[in-house]
Amino acid sequence: MTCKIHEEIKTDIAFASSQATSGKRSEVYVDMSVAQRVAAVIVVQLTEAHSAAVQLYQAKTAAGGSAKVLGDAVTFTNTVGDGYAKRDIICRVEAAAADLDGDNGFTHVGVNVDTTESALAAGVFIRSGLMFRDGIDQDTQCDTGTVTTTSD
After folding, report:
1. Does domain 5-144 have CATH number 2.60.120?
2. Can you give the pTM of this predicted structure?
3. Which of the listed residues 21, 35, 56, 100 has the most CB atoms within 10 Å of its CB?
């Protein structure tokens, strides 16, 4: 059996397309107890020379309880001087589950976007290294043709 990409990752909406200014925080914090890595992929429309700072946060709940910074913010700037009023800038930041402060109960990851102008922004989380895959035992190798299913 061949594994499909969507079987190896889980995607979640960080926030739907909306006007963003300073402090556009993700509407959901994703559970990292089921994954090894997470990437936040944000698309921001920026005019030339404007920027967006993307910062991951860790929290104790899916609602963002006790949220605190996870790593350093990454700044993305529109440096393309081609005369367009706005350009879509794709911002990617990521972290490993091991980066979270698990000793103090931090299990979820969210994202915040600060922009130097009012800009449209949308974002998704992509989790990989899933510990489970829709009832399929993650330890089962996809290319063997043998799949073990589990039920609750």
Report:
1. yes
2. 0.80
3. 56
